[in-house]
Design a protein that fits this description.
Elements: H1 2-8, E1 17-24, H2 51-68, E2 73-81, H3 90-102, E3 104-115, H4 119-122, H5 125-131, E4 135-141, H6 145-150, H7 157-170, E5 175-181, H8 188-201, E6 205-210, H9 218-224, H10 233-249, E7 253-256, E8 259-261, H11 269-275, E9 279-283, E10 288-295, E11 299-310, H12 314-324, E12 328-333, H13 336-347, E13 354-355, H14 356-359, H15 367-374, E14 381-384, E15 387-390, H16 392-396, H17 398-417
Parallel strand pairs: 1-2, 1-9, 2-3, 3-4, 4-5, 5-6
Antiparallel strand pairs: 6-8, 7-8, 10-11, 11-12, 13-15, 14-15
Helix pairs in contact: 2-3, 2-12, 8-10, 13-17, 15-17
Length: 422
Amino acid sequence: MSNYFDKHFTSQSYSQSGSVYVHWPYCKRRCSYCNFVKFIPKNNASWYFSDEIIEDAMVFELQNVLKASPIKNVISVFFGGGTPSIGRPQLVEKILKVISQNCSLASNAEVTLEANPTLLEARKLKSFRTAGVNRLSVGVQSFRDDLLKILNRDHSSKEAIFCIEESRKLYPNKVSFDLIFALPHQTVDLWKEDIEYALALCDDHLSLYQLTVENGTLLSKQVKEGLLRLPTKDEEVEMYEFAVECLKKNGFHRYEVSNFARTDNSESVHNKAVWQGGQYIGIGPGAHSRIVKTFPNNISRIENREAKINVPDPKGWLNEVHGKGNGARRIILQTPIDMQMEYIATSLRTKDGAQQARWNLFSSSPLQDIYEAANIEPEFIVFHDGCFKATEKGINVLDSLLPRLINTIEEVYKPSEEVYFQ
């Protein structure tokens, strides 16, 4: 995929290429660890609206945002949430139609759907494929029913296995699923069993996420009250390192901190575009966007990239969309420093790292200057052939390195970069 990204992420074509993210706001239930923007459908709730009403508003919002943006080529579409697989396949058809009517959507563009592995949703997968989905991301999280119960998931391990098997028939070589480690009462041996089970079932892509206990969640309350025991830090490290080595031995490469693929073509086009600083349009309640602003006479300049955050609740979002054509509650004009910090924070999570050609979109300073000024040990961060990247060891401790890099950008480049785009 390297040639693909070289083509679409250069200074000449940046403002005309982008991705679309569609946020479905509803879930059947709230998982104990989740703090995402999502709502449980209840007919008498003030924020509940029918699928058709939400779909039509999403179509209207996307039409308006595309017309106001400089994006001419959409390289990927991602339906996330919430749980978009509980929605209707018609939403996919409508969104892809709007994109095709307003700009170019390649015939082989990646169209991903997040799916919950219940039997009901597994039976809808063929309809989603017919609607235009060509890649699935299945939220398995664990193959142990006792751990799924702790997480308040609405599927069983048996349902997860069925969903994966059916998905692979319908979407050959285009099925990914998620697992979470460092779960309450999960031992290293239990995690090893999950990984080995995953390898026996998986296609060419796996995502492995460490559990984060978020304030305000049911899980946080249970942990604070001593009802659940979390693994130790040493156990967390052992779990992750075992998974990385085991997947490597079985033909997978780690192309991002939490994502593993057998081949370059198995990597997520959408996520890579975001990690490498690309534009993306967020549609739906709570969705985020990064879009270059367009001025009269269709003039667009990357220094006018905006960060947008949509109203989180469906009712408020609908009011905004019907009132002004989009659901954005907050719009921030990003400074060069903002864009540089974002790019470093996301690109260093990947095997490709930060590339000088893409860095040039946001800065006039050599990328190597950051490497030298940060003075991080070469066993963690290296600079070679115009590329600034984390080593295998560095990726494992990236969260501890990023604050140092971000501070370097703020301290060293802010005085000169403030006038870079003037």
